[in-house]
Amino acid sequence: MAVTVETLEKLERKMTLTLPTAVIQNEVNTRLKRLARQVKVDGFRPGKVPMNIVAQRYGYSVHYEVMNDKVGEAFSLAANEAKLRVAGQPRISEKEQTTETEMAFDAIFEVYPEVVVKDLSQVEVETLKSEVTDAAIDKTVEILRKQKRTFAQRSMDAAAATDDRVTVDFIGKIDGEPFDGGRADDFQFVVGEGQMLKEFEEAVVGMKLGESKTFPLNFPADYQGREVAGKTADFMVTLKKLEATHLPEVTDELAKSLGVVEATVEALRADIRKNLEREVKHRLLGRNKQAALDVLVANAELDLPNSIVQSELDRMTQGAREELKQRGIKDADKAPIPEEVFRPQAERRVRMGLVVSEVVRMHNLQATPEQIKAHVEELASSYEKPAEVIRWYYSDNRRMAEVEAIVIENNVTNYVLSLVKNKDKELGFDELMSQQA
Questions:
Q1: Which of 43, 72, 199, 222 could serve as a FRET partner for 156 with CA atoms 20 to 30 Å apart?
Q2: CB burial readout 10-29, b (16+ within 10 A) else e
Q3: What is the pLDDT of residues 78-93, one digit of tens each?
């Protein structure tokens, strides 16, 4: 087999392959003979169908399969011999100068790019730090108290106030007409918790049992109910039940009710601190990892293989269609989804993947079994039965592959942060927890 490789532009290459016609035909004959022992044709016993009939019925499809297989094998062998790192699938077409003894093919494909990372020693990266304060623990205790709260009927002359649980009937109209979702009977919510729009809660405050009130409510322009977003509705609400909230005292009894093993307030706060520190560590790692990877990609030079970007675009477009299906959108498979909407994100993902992979390869940052084991054990430590969680991870190759990918990203993060100038920034606990990791 003779092979020539031509550079077209940037990452695109063209390889010319030649295969002896006899090789193709011999493999076609072999497969047809094998097929003849299995096919069923009316008027013939199994295994007794004449070869000319088998060839007539299946010759074209078998020839097509053989061509794909043999050309694919030839391409793979030639790429390995030429030490080419092929990106994506090649586009293979038969050349016109095919002869009786040889068939010639052109394979157009892309190779993985050379990745050049600039010197990072003078690059400054903001590294976030945070700590769990007593105030954070106190706030968590309050949340846990709310989980154990009880409600008691208030007196007939009591007025609804913040933290009261109210049960109401309401109906809303826009331009005098009711609208979907604008009516409910025996609807229950706690005033001040944000379950209802602020104007609705403010209207209920001060109402007494049996009282009705009408009031206007302006729906925000970005309200989730698009049909009423930005519009003004007239509501009538009737208070049917009013209950006061009672929070349990912070005692050993509360700790016991929350499942704390030692059943003491001190043990409860220690558990809360441990859980919050684990969450803080996770969020800081996520934020610092993103900052490190962003710097790495921003200081890397490479060309993007169009074939890999296209594969990512196809995957993202298909994901968008699946989401439309889940929302019940009719004809989601046919919905026009311009892939250009996803191109910036697709290109960023491909760029990130290529740069990280190259850095891992160049600096031996692969995940070790010890690192993977330690990460799984850390993940399992927050559960009641860690051993079962560890077995759950190790029982599935896909889950373990995800763990390995995370460990590799952590290795790359640590590598980048060891090269750059780290600028520590203290982040308040509330600020860190209010932002997505």
A1: 199
A2: ebbbebbbbbeeeebeebbe
A3: 888 888 899 988 998 8
Q: Which domains, ranges and CATH numbers included, belong to the chain?
A: 3-111 (3.30.70.1050), 150-246 (3.10.50.40), 261-302+343-434 (1.10.3120)
CA 266 remoteness from chain centre:
38
Strand, coil or helix: 234:
strand
pTM to 2 decimal places: 0.70
Q: Are 85 and 305 in contact (CB under 8 A)?
A: no
In the numeric block, which tokens belong to residue 151? 């409600």
pLDDT digits (tens, 9 = 90+) for 39-55: 888 878 777 788 888 88
Confidence grade of residue 2 (pLDDT, cut at 50, 70, 90): low
Q: Residue with structure tokens 């640590």?
A: 414
Please give the helix or strand (H or E) that residue 89 lies within, else none: strand 86-94
Rounded CA-CA distance 414/420 in Å is: 10
